[in-house]
């Protein structure tokens, strides 16, 4: 079907101009209501239109603008549309109706609780990756798949589709490719940089690609970004792994499982992620990154992402089953998720604790150290290089001997140099009005406060806890310090805290 | 909590300018990255911000613009934001962080299948009406409530909340206020104008407010708009009803159940509506309009909105139950939904058939006439003015005597004059490649074709059927004519038809 030529034989063309509007990843184009294209095609504001340049195309949302902003033979592109289409000022673009999105009918069936076929899932994911879904369509798909609404075959199909619509890496000459992942929900649980350093120090291969945060105040990529460069090209990443057996990169910059990145943006806005979506997101990134053996950390706590041992067991079983089907060995580890790990929450605050553990400082949080050692030990055993029960001791030796810290510095050097984490210019102290003993944390509310303070976008923002479980508290004792990069964000986080009751439970 | 003043005591103010961008109902504001507010508050593109002017405020999406588009002490407003905030060029606006949306946690609970409390629903609806939900939040809420995911108490609470967040009308001196509604899904089912004319001709009260289409090619308001003015103010509507006992107005212009209007916009984009949402949408409009007795037409067919008698019965029971709880008498009527009603699909094409029935033309579609008579008969009986079984005959007399046509003209005159429906400049004929007898229609695909042709926005667009169920068809016989206002839309609808198999089934 020739989409370029309309009924009367005319081709709709307008000249590209970068209008100077930043809409983040949302693709928006701007046309005048009185331009020939809007008049001929009946386009009005919020219509979805297809914009073609050479062999590339995008589907974008149309905003209609007045004559003052645009010449009538021009089409304005948002910064995101400009980048994605790769055009220059004055290039001639073709404007068309987008094809009818048949995959949306599959999404509607899913909303009505009908299972999705392999073909349906493949088509939905292909349309998502091609940018044919608007934000409300993505939100509908995510909500329809949220909670436990995807069954095992659907999760397998979704994972496979997400792998196949992106780049797939392999690591020639290296046999077992290791990785670790935490399903999240536990603020401050920044074990990854430590685990990678230990495992790589053992001479094993762990090419770590991490996401930025979905609903938390910091993802591993956000934290690593304050220590070194994480936006590596594929070639840069390969050369770091070639040299060091490991890397600590942001997955998004190498086009691994691009569907995941598009879905995560809307998941973040609606602050929602489902079990099947979670498994597909995690495993698609791992499989596409060429990983063969992975440990998955599943923290359980009443205010963690996974709230009961029963759900954790279920999730663990699903992870293993999907992994088996897709040829990746998954070892789940159910861990304590009752309180934040360490004391810092937010990219820079967590990065400082990672450094303290690696540098074997006496001030290093013991819980962060112990968790990292346990995960690293399991990976050493999964590698086949260490026998069952030998991994823990080996990991401790690699950390305490300084081998892991040396490896971490080498890794950061290869990625562009080790940086010093920034410090927040605005701080607010929260002190106790009661005395007693800490007997609980609300992880979700802590995460919310850190996010309102600006994390993860504001790297220095977040929370520094002063107390942990079972610590004694006197009236007036410092409970936590909120860090922010602007006074408005500090005030916003403080106001939110004041309206809450039980962020830290003391009795 | 004082939201106006930030931590350092400064008040964030910028001067309003209408930037000249139409984003339909979506509220968007434009600021420079280097303006004092973005710098102080850490605002980036896509952030939601609260904009205050005098006692009013809106929550809008932020787009960040370059220096060429805006002075640094200005804030640009989209046409929608400009209208809703009611400002003038140069007015000083206050810019703040929006309050934290606690009601989103209720939406997330619902996604996880937990029932919503009355308080939760009231807060969600209040936040929706205040414009605090972005489009992805609305899509998440709608999807979480889609299908049959709302239970009876939730539907009752949702209906009540939607009534209470808008204007509520009463009709002093009039006892029974009648109404009718069709749940939709059946193209061309445009009985409302005929029923209103008949019932009003009997001297009864039927102040009809209709919605525009959600997922169909034409709602009653869309069709009536080609015959007269439907955007009446409350005062205009009251004066029409005062004089004629009836009106045929668009509900949106009188701020009845504004939550419904906001939800419908996103429902339309995702082409999805749920059972509970449907009942709340319909009954909230009726109750807020002061209606006491309503007939609900529920067409059943394999490709109608309601596909089985069992589901229709369930929906009918829910309608009656919610109505009883909220003090409105509901009489459901389950009807034949196997094929479109009449021959025209689309605002102008349907309007012409409405006129043919009212004018008792021999060319008038008999099925449209019969359905209208049945509904009008039931309403005459519900009014208490006619005994059980007497309504049908009375309705027929009112139509055949010309009384209904006279009343319809009087109504249109009061609303601004009777208009002639527009004719489409572009037409495409679809002819049969086989011979046989028509034995089925795909109502959904017909609706889709009519929408791709431009309906309901393009008033003259749609489909004129040439054949109905059980009609004989020879090879080359005309099956339907697609009407469009632009060549692009005609081609788009034709292309879509060509890719389909069984829009009209012939054997």
How much helix, percentage-wise, in residues of chain A? 40-55%
Structural class of chain A: alpha/beta
Structure annotation, total helices of chain A: 18
Whole-number count of domains of chain A: 4
Q: Mind explaining what this structure looks like?
A:
Two copies of one chain form a homodimer. With 507 residues, the first copy, chain A, is α/β, with parallel strands linked by helices. Chain A has four domains: 13-96, Barwin-like endoglucanases (Beta Barrel), CATH 2.40.40; 103-164, Up-down Bundle (Transferase, Pyrimidine Nucleoside Phosphorylase, Chain A, domain 3), CATH 1.20.970.10; 178-256 and 273-415, Pyrimidine Nucleoside Phosphorylase, Chain A, domain 2; 426-506, Alpha-Beta Complex (Aldehyde Oxidoreductase, domain 3), CATH 3.90.1170.30. Chain A is built from 18 helices and 19 strands. A six-stranded mixed β-barrel of chain A has the order 1-6-3-5-4-7. The longest helix of chain A has 18 residues, at 309-326. The radius of gyration of chain A is 25 Å and the shape is globular. Mean pLDDT of chain A is 91; it is low at 1-10. The interface between A and B is large, with 69 and 69 residues.
Short description:
Two copies of one chain form a homodimer. The first copy, chain A, is built from 18 helices and 19 strands. Chain A has helices at 36-41, 79-85, 103-111, 118-129, 135-144, 152-164, 192-201, 220-224, 234-244, 258-270, 275-288, 309-326, 347-358, 366-382, 391-400, 403-415, 443-452, 487-499; strands at residues 13-18, 21-22, 28-32, 48-53, 56-65, 74-77, 92-96, 178-182, 206-210, 246-250, 293-300, 329-336, 344-345, 426-431, 436-441, 462-465, 472-473, 478-484, 504-506.
């Amino acid at each position: 079907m020739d989409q370029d030529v309309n009924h009367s034989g005319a081709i709709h063309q307008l000249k590209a101009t970068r209008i100077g509007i930043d809409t983040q990843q949302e693709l928006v184009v701007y046309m005048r209501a009185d331009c020939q294209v809007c008049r001929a095609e009946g386009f009005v504001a919020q219509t979805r239109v297809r914009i073609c340049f050479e062999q590339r195309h995008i589907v974008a949302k149309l905003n209609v603008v007045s004559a003052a902003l645009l010449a009538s033979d021009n089409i304005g592109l948002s910064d995101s549309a400009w980048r994605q289409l790769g055009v220059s000022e004055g290039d001639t673009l073709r404007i068309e109706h987008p094809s009818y999105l048949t995959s949306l009918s599959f999404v509607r069936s899913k909303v009505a609780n009908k299972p999705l076929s392999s073909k349906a899932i493949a088509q939905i994911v292909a349309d998502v990756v091609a940018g044919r879904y608007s934000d409300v369509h993505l939100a509908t798909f995510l909500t329809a798949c949220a909670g436990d609404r995807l069954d095992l075959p659907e999760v397998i199909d979704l994972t496979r589709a997400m792998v196949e619509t992106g780049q797939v890496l392999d690591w020639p000459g290296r046999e077992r490719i290791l990785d670790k992942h935490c399903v999240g929900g536990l603020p401050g649980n920044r074990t990854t940089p430590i685990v990678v350093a230990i495992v790589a120090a053992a001479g094993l291969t762990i090419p770590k690609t991490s996401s930025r945060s979905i609903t938390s105040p910091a993802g591993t990529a956000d934290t690593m970004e304050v220590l070194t460069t994480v936006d590596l090209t594929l070639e840069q990443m390969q050369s770091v792994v070639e040299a060091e057996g490991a890397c600590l990169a942001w997955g998004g910059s190498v086009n691994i499982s691009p569907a995941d990145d598009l879905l995560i943006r809307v998941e973040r806005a609606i602050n929602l992620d489902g079990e099947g979506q979670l498994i597909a997101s995690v495993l698609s990134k791992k499989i596409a990154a060429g990983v063969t053996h992975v440990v998955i950390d599943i923290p359980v706590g009443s205010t963690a992402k996974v709230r009961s041992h029963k759900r954790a067991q279920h999730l663990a079983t699903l992870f293993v089953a999907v992994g088996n089907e897709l040829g990746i060995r998954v070892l789940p580890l159910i861990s304590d998720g009752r309180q934040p790990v360490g004391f810092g929450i937010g990219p820079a605050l967590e990065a400082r604790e990672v450094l303290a553990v690696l540098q074997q400082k006496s001030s290093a949080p013991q819980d962060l150290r112990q968790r990292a050692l346990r995960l690293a030990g399991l990976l050493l055993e999964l590698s086949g290089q260490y026998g069952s029960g030998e991994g823990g001791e080996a990991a401790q030796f690699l950390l305490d001997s300084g081998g892991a810290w040396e490896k971490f510095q080498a890794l950061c050097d290869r990625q562009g140099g080790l940086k010093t984490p920034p410090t927040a210019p605005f701080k607010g102290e929260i002190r106790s009005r009661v005395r007693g003993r800490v007997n609980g944390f609300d992880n979700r509310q802590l995460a919310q406060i850190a996010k309102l303070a600006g994390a993860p976008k504001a790297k220095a923002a977040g929370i520094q806890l002063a107390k942990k479980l079972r610590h004694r508290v006197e009236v007036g004792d410092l409970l936590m310090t909120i860090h922010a990069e602007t006074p408005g964000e500090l005030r916003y986080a403080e106001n939110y805290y004041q309206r809450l009751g039980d962020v830290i439970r003391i009795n």
